Amino acid sequence: MTQRRRLIVVSNRGPISYDREDGQRVARRGAGGLVTALAPLVSHHDVTWIASAISDEDRAAAAAGPVEETAPDGSRYRLRLVPHDARAYALSYNVVANPTLWFVQHGLWELKDEPHADVLGPWEDGYVAVNRAFAAAVVEELERDPDSAVLFHDYHLYLAPALVRDRCPGAALAHFTHIPWVGPDSWSVLPEEVVRSIHEGLLAADVTGFHTERWRQAFLASCRALGLEPDEHRVTAHPISIDPGEFIGLAESEGVRLREQELVARRPERLIVRVDRTDPSKNVPRGFEAFRLLLERRPDLRGRVGMLALLDPSRLQIPEYGAERRRIEETAAAVEADFPGALTLRIADDFYDSVAAYKQFDVLLVNAVMDGLNLVAKEAPLVNRRDGVVALSVNAGAYEELEDWVTPVEPLDVAGTADALEAALALDEGARRERREAIEAQVRSNDLQRWVAAQLADLDRASSIRPR
Fold it and tell me: How far is CA 423 from CA 131, 362, 426, in A?
């Protein structure tokens, strides 16, 4: 257990979002894997969480100032919601952060509808403005409690560390990027002033963190290409994890058990599962095509092996994401036309359904084009009841940690992905059990608290030697 600390956690989405029902304000669990991963922080530390006010009710709550909230386990924390200018937030989130930075950092730039559209206008009017609003909120919280450590998270907040450093030179600041980092050639599609601001913003933190050594080395290379000289000891790599006890408790909850009963009643003999978002980086259509190819080449598997795809709808207001959802649905329909009953596709935000599928998979397919980490590859084996095999993209950050116990997938190779599925299905019972138990042991011994402790140890070490 990490020593209890006063922390300021800063992320685009918060642990909860507000809505209104029957005239009353209600709180709902925040969306996204990042929030799920970071939420247990409030159980072990004195946390002020700063996040965007996204819904109308969020903005109404923000007007009243920070509020005391209660986590599911009864822990208390302060929530401060930042009400951005609506146009600035739309430009930052829907033009810069997601269809620009996300696409560049996942090797998807060529899929953009308008790859040569203006970036500098939305950058200044949107991304910079939103980062300034976050930085102002952090500065106010540091004035209230200067000894708090500030933990910035992810690609929405690349500039905030430098903005806070300018006003609070002695603050202990860390930034952790949860998506892949890419090298100089990939960044070259954006204006140099944007790229330079991103890297300088991150280097203003005492610690700049990534999930893997691969992403860490890419960051160092892109810094050097800009003529920057990063202190390599302040750039770290620690793969995030989960809270095993909390996740196992969720898997045994009544809601998950009911979903699992329904799944068991209709499951085929062998079940391939994928749990993703409708995001181009997740590479869902190629996974469907690989499953089709597997059934074409192996008639003996027809009727015995099925695929269940549970997808969370994602960022559909962005054109590229809407187009991806249509590709997913069209590809699934084509597979179903050729092999009726073989593929079940559900697009819905239903985490209970996903966890029930985790418990019942024989093969878990994760074939992302690129992925900062991918917590699905850690969550699912922890609760799986069938000694299921993980077929994991070599470009997912989790591959660096789990390589010895997974079946590798080259994500752009459809035939190779079909080979990986076939190999995973063919593994004998002993090999399956050995692999799953090894992943479970890795997740249990390298849990979320160990990741948090590593972040704070890195921050203490780096901030102690920073010139004051």
Answer: 47, 12, 5
